[in-house]
């Protein structure tokens, strides 16, 4: 990781009658522009996310997606879809007067990166993706219904706890009801349980400090509500849309590096492998001793190497 780039600008951009995005620009003023797309959806950015990019070569743009982080209104689900976010990325690019930029995204950020690139292929210089997630029903089922539960049974019990037994046949839908309850205590309790399940499972070795993020009411509420909103609506796209050959053909020319943890249970390697099969031109690294997080040492190293390799474009 690089030392954190110097801040050039911190501001907001109104993208609709409802939503205003927080964004920050750092690094080299006339550097090669790169936009960082955070995970979740609903996760928000952190200043340390700048560390994936050489500050002497990149102009680094970080922003919080609708309802996430410092964007307002917090945790809002109104007018919050994949395609609203794709439009927001374009509005931010135009606002910053950038012709083309590199796109970097992990987990949900990889989903959004693919959706954006397929919508605006001529605006993307390169893609660096991590923990591939394409929001197929099979992927959602593995993590939220029957799959990861076999690997983290004790954490799964805590995730099940807020949901009545009669509703556990569809955990995403059951959580949807509680995360949108009129009762604040019900909402926050469900949000923390939802967020904790992901925080526990996202690293090869469970990191108590990372799990503690789920105890933050504001973070958990936005993270859980927005994630669940997207998942209950199947990402507002066709099942498997991002992997369809006619969609991949739109971006086949874009230099792309994918970094995937072998033991990622949040976004299992099968999805990255499926992407490689339909798009053999990409470079796929499967890290043998890593889970889901971009902070896993092997993943972090390869992500930095990937951005270094594209800095000249």
From TrEMBL:
Catalytic activity: Release of N-terminal proline from a peptide
One BP term from GO: proteolysis
Cytoplasm among keywords: yes
UniProt cross-references to InterPro entries, sorted A to Z: AB_hydrolase_1 (IPR000073), AB_hydrolase_fold (IPR029058), Peptidase_S33 (IPR002410), Pro_iminopeptidase (IPR005944)
Alphabetized Pfam families for the sequence: Abhydrolase_1
Keyword field: Aminopeptidase, Cytoplasm, Hydrolase, Protease
NCBIfam families: pro_imino_pep_1
Protein name as catalogued: Proline iminopeptidase
Organism: Gymnopilus junonius
């Amino acid at each position: 990781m690089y030392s954190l780039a110097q801040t050039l600008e911190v501001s907001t951009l109104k993208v609709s009658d409802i939503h205003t995005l927080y964004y920050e620009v750092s690094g080299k003023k006339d550097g090669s522009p790169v936009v960082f797309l955070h995970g979740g959806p609903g996760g928000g950015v952190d200043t340390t996310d700048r560390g994936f990019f050489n500050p002497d070569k990149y102009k680094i743009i970080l922003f919080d997606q609708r309802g996430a982080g410092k964007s307002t209104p917090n945790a809002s689900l109104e007018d919050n879809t994949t395609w609203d976010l794709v439009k927001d990325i374009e509005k931010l690019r135009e606002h910053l007067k950038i012709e083309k930029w590199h796109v970097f995204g992990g987990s949900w950020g990889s989903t959004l990166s693919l959706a954006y690139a397929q919508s605006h292929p001529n605006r993307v210089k390169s893609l660096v993706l991590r923990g591939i997630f394409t929001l197929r029903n099979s992927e959602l089922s593995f993590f939220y219904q029957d799959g990861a539960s076999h690997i983290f049974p004790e954490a799964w019990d805590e995730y099940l706890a807020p949901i009545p037994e009669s509703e556990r046949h569809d955990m995403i839908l059951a959580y949807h009801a509680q995360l949108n309850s009129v009762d604040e205590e019900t909402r926050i309790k469900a949000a923390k349980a939802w967020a904790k399940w992901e925080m526990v499972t996202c690293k090869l070795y469970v990191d108590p400090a990372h799990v503690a993020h789920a105890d933050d009411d504001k973070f958990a509420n936005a993270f859980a509500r927005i994630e669940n909103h997207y998942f209950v609506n199947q990402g507002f796209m066709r099942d498997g849309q991002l992997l369809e050959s006619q969609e991949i053909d739109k971006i086949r020319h874009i230099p792309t590096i994918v970094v995937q943890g072998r033991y990622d249970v949040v976004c299992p390697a099968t999805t990255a492998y499926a992407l490689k099969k339909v798009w053999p031109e990409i470079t796929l690294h499967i890290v043998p001793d890593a889970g889901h997080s971009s902070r896993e040492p092997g993943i972090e190293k390869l992500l930095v190497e990937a951005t270094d390799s594209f800095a000249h474009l």
